[in-house]
Amino acid sequence: MNFSFKFGALAFVSGAFFCQATVSADEVEPVAVEKGGIVAVEAEDFVEQTKDEIRAWYRVDESTTPDVTPDGDPPHVEGASGGAYIEILPDTRRTHGDKLIRGENFSPEPGHLAIIHYPIEFETAGRYYVWARIYSTGSEDNGIHVGLNGEWPAAGQRMQWCQGKHGWRWESRQRTKEQHCGVKHKIFIDIPEPGVHTISFSMREDGIEFDKFILVNEQHEAMEGTSPEENLAQE
Questions:
Q1: Which residues span the domain enclosing 221?
Q2: Which end of the chain is more exposed for a tag (fewer CB within 10 A), N or C?
Q3: Distance, CA of 161 to CA of 173 (rounded, Å)
Q4: Which distant-in-sequence residues (6+ apart) come within 8 Å of 132 by Cβ?
Q5: Total domains in the fold of the chain
Q6: Where are the beta strands (DSSP E) in 9-83?
Q7: Cβ neighbours, 10 Å, residue 69
């Protein structure tokens, strides 16, 4: 289904969210509130998308399939938390054999392509480890960057997935020169003080499918299911 309608400062076009005006954290309600060192957010709940001229995030659910090509795989709504997810399209590089074009289908530097923003209220300052749930079908649709308040710290760059192809998978690993499949506990953000802070994700590789993310102030070895934050809150 393709559609176009406006809601507040946001415009929804062909299944993607496009922002018509800059929205600051002071002008919008937080999409989530951290409590007890944990906060979980559905990926499709972002409030703003920027730098979306070349690549953009598109919503996918049972009634919405983006009319954007190429897209090398079918929808993967089954198993997605909340019955929806977002995907970066067009997807022109899915394997090592496809041509790599920096600044188009690959962005090694964060904050350059397809950025989505989430204002989140934090009750507690400190370090939060970033976990994200994605669906990858190839070797070149499994990387994103995460930033904080318009900045892109080294600890948020090159978030990577290798295992769990053709299924939704939680991971929190940073790709390094020595370990291309990523090192655990290296992806994190440091919240300087309580209040509303904007978490952002930007494209590293096109075609990545993004379902949900969790910020947690303790290290964990693994996450399972669509709502692991419920178990973490009980620990």
A1: 4-234
A2: C
A3: 7
A4: 43, 144, 146, 159, 170, 171, 172, 201, 210, 212, 213, 214
A5: 1
A6: 10-13, 16-19, 32-34, 38-42, 48-50, 56-61
A7: 10
Task: Fill in the amino acid letter for 49.
Answer: Q
Interatomic CA distance for residues 118 and 59, integer angstroms: 15
For 83-107, what is each residue's pLDDT tens digit? 999 999 999 999 889 999 999 999 9
Q: 72 phi and psi, to 5 degrees? A: -80, 0
> Which CATH number goes with the domain that contains 195?
2.60.120.260
Tell me the pLDDT tens digit for each residue of 180-222: 999 999 999 999 999 999 999 999 999 999 999 999 999 999 9
The two three-digit tokens of residue 81, written as one number: 């938390």
Q: What are phi and psi of 146, to 5 degrees?
A: -125, 140
d(CA 46, CA 170): 19
What DSSP designation does 92 have?
-
- At residue 81, the 3 state secondary structure works out as helix
Beta strands in 62-216 (DSSP E): 84-89, 115-122, 126-135, 143-148, 159-160, 168-171, 173-174, 183-184, 188-191, 195-203, 209-216
Q: How far apart are CA 39 and CA 98, in angstroms?
A: 37
**What is the phi/psi pair of residue 156, to 5°?**
-110, 5
| The two structure tokens encoding residue 29 | 């309600």
